[in-house]
Amino acid sequence: MHCVIHYFAYGSNMSRARLEARVGSVHDHGRARLDDYVHRFSKLGRDGTGKGNIERAPGRSCWGVLYELDAAQLERLIDFEMGYGATTLRVQPVLGDARPCPALSFVAHEIVAELRPKAAYVEFYRQGMVEHGIPESYVQAITSSPVFEREPSRWGSARERASLA
């Protein structure tokens, strides 16, 4: 029996090429909206930069992409998503029958405010958002976040780098 999991990608995995490089070929169900959550770069990466996260925020929304994964692909993805916990959320697909559906996503175990992502990391976001027709206002909000233009490891400890945001 083939187990299918709906996965809501809100970060760099919105880029189909990036996700497929990690887990193999995926089925793409298009863009989806997650209500009562907001996107922030509030997960501290191993390199000291901000990684994407979603946080509860009543009345707000964030956008992402709904993919279909099998169990083996999910296991491979979990290996990449260290520091996150898998959780099931209710998302609103935009294409197809457009009924809300449950989807697995990842939420940071620990939140750190005011982190900056690397510019190259945000570029994966931009690629995925443009590829899936996510609203331009949302693309602008994410891609206008302050970023590290060069390798932040040259700037001291992770806490010091986080304070530069």
TrEMBL record:
The active site is at E81 (proton acceptor). GO terms for molecular function: gamma-glutamylcyclotransferase activity. It holds the Pfam family AIG2_2. Keywords: Lyase. Gene3D superfamilies: Gamma-glutamyl cyclotransferase-like (3.10.490.10). InterPro entries: G-Glutamylcylcotransferase, GGCT-like, GGCT-like_sf. Transmembrane segments: none annotated. Substrate binds at Y7, F8, A9, Y10, G11, S12, Y121. CDD domains: GGCT_like. PANTHER family: GAMMA-GLUTAMYLCYCLOTRANSFERASE. This is Gamma-glutamylcyclotransferase AIG2-like domain-containing protein.
